[in-house]
């Protein structure tokens, strides 16, 4: 009897991990940061299309520029990044849009 409940628990735990990790894994496969030959100084109207174009040249469906924020208050540091989308040309609603802040 104890073996049955232990097996059931192991199966339930494995399914739980699989169900909750799949969306995160898919997101990691779709969105990759572009590391290229141009530094992003900001997410301006000029650099956002440039990010999209560079991603398309590397086989992605599109790209998006965003501001990554680290730290708080006086120690806050902003860096501009370009994410390439390898799954679809349209971005889902929880992906940051041009000039939106992640933090």
UniProtKB/TrEMBL annotation:
The gene is LOC130511660. It is found in: Secreted. Its main location: secreted. The keyword Secreted applies. This is Defensin-like protein 192. The keyword Signal applies. It comes from the Eukaryota. Gene3D superfamilies: Knottin, scorpion toxin-like (3.30.30.10). Residues 1-27 form the signal peptide. Transmembrane segments: none annotated. Coiled coil: none annotated. GO terms for molecular function: sodium channel inhibitor activity. GO terms for cellular component: extracellular region. Keywords: Secreted, Signal. It holds the Pfam family Toxin_3.
